[in-house]
Amino acid sequence: MRIIKFTAPQATYGIIDGFTVDFYFTYFEKKKGFLKDIQTQHTFRINISRWALISWGFRDVKFDNEEAVL
């Protein structure tokens, strides 16, 4: 059995005039018999510019130097 479990994404002010959103997830794979179960943790990052957000309809996005709020 394989399971992917996502945690809450975290948005940061990582790029100039945009957001960096990190998605964290854990991959579980249960093995049968004497084989050990596999559990690995991963992250993938998406960079989104302010212009992309505006064109997608997110006009009320708050850009703050301390925190990014979608």
| H and E string | EEEEHEE
Could you give the distance between the termini?
35 Å
Give average pLDDT, whole number. Answer: 80
Number of domains: 1
Helical percent range?
Answer: under 10%
Q: Class by helix and strand content?
A: mainly beta
Poorly predicted ranges = none
The beta-strand count equals: 6
Strand content: over 45%
Shape: elongated
The radius of gyration is 17 Å
The profile of the biggest β sheet is:
4 strands, antiparallel
Total helix count?
1
Model description:
With 70 residues, the protein is mainly beta. The protein has one domain. The model has no long low-confidence stretch (mean pLDDT 80). Helix content is 9%, strand content 51%. Strand 5 (62-63) and strand 6 (68-69) form a beta hairpin.
Quick gist of this model?
The chain is mainly beta and 70 residues long. Helices cover 9% and strands 51% of the residues.
Topology:
Elements: E1 2-6, E2 10-12, E3 18-29, E4 38-49, H1 50-55, E5 62-63, E6 68-69
Antiparallel strand pairs: 1-3, 2-3, 3-4, 5-6
